[in-house]
Amino acid sequence: MKSNHYYKIHLFIKFVLILSFFEANANEVIEDKVKKLTLELRCMTCQNQSIYDSEADFSNDIKKIVRTKFEEGKSEREIKLFLVERYGEYILFKPLLNYKNWFLWAFPFILLMFGLFFIRFKMRKKLN
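Above: the chain sequence. Below: its structure as tokens.
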């Protein structure tokens, strides 16, 4: 009878330890996600410093918001869109690819094409 009681206590302790391990592991995963995302976000009060590196009140508030959004099950993209809607696209170090800023993304390629055209034009003129 006593051994059965000890066996139940032993199983209960194992169960609690396994549960706490999974909870700690889940917290580490969320912390890694928060770190990754906050490294991509700009602090609005600091001079081009990431939210993760900054210790300003604004940055601490954003870290809390990002952590709660991840705990709610939101994806990284959803959190970025929420922050852009709230603070503007300046909060992102890498701007979103959308119709509003397509020229920003296309400009280097346009500049490259004009440069290649100009070089080809000069080479043809030089050969003739």
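The CA atoms of residues 87 and 94 lie 15 Å apart.
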